[in-house]
Amino acid sequence: MQKDMQSNLFDASAGGRIGVLPNNVLAKVNSSAIRAANRALVLRALFPRETKSRAEIARETGLTRVTTSEVVATLIEDGLVLETGVRDSGNRGKKGISLRIDPDSRHMVVIDLSQPDAIVGAVTNLIGQVVYRKEEPFRFDKSLETDTVVNMIEMLVDAATSPVLAVGIASPGVVSDSGVVIRSTSLGWSNVDIAHIVRQRFPVHVYVHNDANGAALAEEQFGGGGSDLIVIHVARGLGAGVMVNNQLVHGSNYSGGEIGHVVIRPDGKTCRCGKRGCLETCVSSSVIDQCMAEDPARRRDILHEAGVMMGNALSMPVGMLDIPRVVFYGPSSIVNDTFIGAVGATINDAVVTGFRTKVNVSISRLGDDIVVKGETAAILRNELGI
Ligand SMILES: [Zn+2]
After folding, report:
1. Helix, strand or coil for residue 244?
2. Name one Pfam family in it (predicted).
3. Ligand 1 centre from 277 Cα, in Å?
4. For the domain 224-364, what is the CATH superfamily, name and number?
C-alpha cells in the first residue's frame, strides 16, 4: 500500500498514473520534488549498509527500472552511492551490479549541548558513525557564549575529511522549528537564534532540535526503530521526545515532550519553575541520587518507587496515543533494570486491554552518543530524505 502510494505520487516515469492526482496536488508536485523524492526512496532502500542491485531497488521502491537507473546514476555522480561488484539479483538468476551508500562521501558536524559538564562536538558520517569527537569541559552555571559553539563548529568543519552536508545542534530547553532556542535554563539562553548565528559563518543548512527530540530521531533511525515511540531522558531535568506516525510532536508552543514540569503532586515540593509537585521534583536524577545517598539501604526500593511514579505519569499519553514503545536514556545508576521494570509494569498494568498488546519499555542501546546520532538522523532526514 505504502509503496503504491509512493509510486503513484513520485514516479515520474509512471506516465498516466500520476495524472489521476487532482490538479492542485499536481501543481505542487514539481519535477525537482519528484527527483528529490525518488532519490530519497533509493537511498532509503540502501540505508544504512544494504547492498542491492538496481533491479532489487526497483522492486522494493516501486520505481520503474528506467527511473531507478536514472536516479542511481545521479547518486553515483554525486558520490553518495558506490558500485561494489556483481551479485545475483534474485531475478531468474540474472546478475546485477551491487550498490551501496558510501558512508564517508559526506560528513556532518554535530554539537550536543545537553551533557551535564561538557560541550560535545562530533563529525559523523552518512550511516551515523562518529568519525571524530571533541569534548570541551563547561560548567553550566553560567550563560554559554554563542562564540564557544561557533568556534567548536569551525574546528569540526576543519576536522571533517569530506564535504559537510549540514550542521546539527542539540539544545536542552524549548527550540522553535526555525532553530531559535526560545528558552534554555541550563544554557542561560532566551530567544537565541543559534541557527542564524551559525549560518552567518558557515554556508550550510543548520538544524537545531531539543536534545530529547533528537534522541527520538536517533532511536527511530539507528535504534530499535518504530514510527510511534516516546524517548525519555532522565537527567537533572526530565526531557522527552514524542514521535507519532514517524513525525516528531512539536506542539503549539514547541514544548511537545516537556513532561518535567507537569504537576503530579499538587501538595509536593516546590519546583525550580515555581510550581509545586512537578514530575521533575519526584523522578529527576538529582532527586533520586539524593534519596539514594541519604538512605543507601533502600536504593532498590527508591528506584522502584521512582519507576512507578514515572510509569503512572506516562500511562495516559502512552494509552491515549497507542504508543507501542518507550525508551529511556540517562545515568546507568538510575536507568537500570529495576527502574525500567517498574516503569514497564506500571504502564502495562494501566493500558493493556484485550485489544492492545504489551508496551515495550526499554533502555536505549545507543549509549552516550544517542543525541549526536539524533542530530545526524535529523540532517539525513532533511537533506537526503532518509
Ligand atoms: Zn516545575
Report:
1. strand
2. ROK
3. 7
4. ATPase, nucleotide binding domain (3.30.420.40)
pLDDT at residue 37 tops 90: yes
Which residues in the chain are classed under CATH 3.30.420.40? 105-213, 224-364
**How far, CA to CA in Å, does 57 sit from each of 11, 204, 363, 371, 381?**
13, 30, 34, 31, 19
Type of residue at 12: A
| 2 CA from centroid of ligand 1 (Å) | 42
- Using DSSP, how many helices (H) and how many strands (E) does the chain show? 13, 15
pLDDT at 273 over 90: no
Q: Residues with beta carbon < 5 A to ion ligand 1?
A: 261, 271, 273, 275, 278
Region 257-271: mean pLDDT is 92
Query: 322 CA to middle of ligand 1, Å?
Result: 27
Distance from the CA of 276 to the center of ligand 1, in angstroms? 7
Judge: domain 2-101, CATH 1.10.10.10.
yes
Residues of CATH 1.10.10.10 domain(s) within the chain?
2-101
Instruction: Decide: helix, strand or coil at residue 76.
Output: helix
Distance 6 CA to ligand 1 centre (A): 44
CA of 132 to the centre of ligand 1 (A): 37
Interior angle at CA 103, CA 136 and CA 218, nearest 5 = 60
Strands 164-171 and 206-210: parallel
> What pLDDT sits at residue 94?
62
Q: What percent of the chain has pLDDT over 70?
A: 90
CA–CA dist 273, 165 (Å, integer): 38
Task: Report which of 191, 133, 203 is spatially closest to residue 167, judged by C-alpha positions.
Answer: 203
Kind of pairing between the strands at 164-171 and 174-175: unpaired
Please give the class, per CATH, of domain 105-213: alpha beta
> Would you mind telling me the total number of residues written for the chain in this entry?
386
Query: What are the pLDDT digits (tens) for 206-226?
Result: 999 999 999 999 999 999 888
189 pLDDT more than 80:
yes
Enumerate the H helices of 266-368 as residue ranges: 280-283, 285-294, 299-321, 337-351
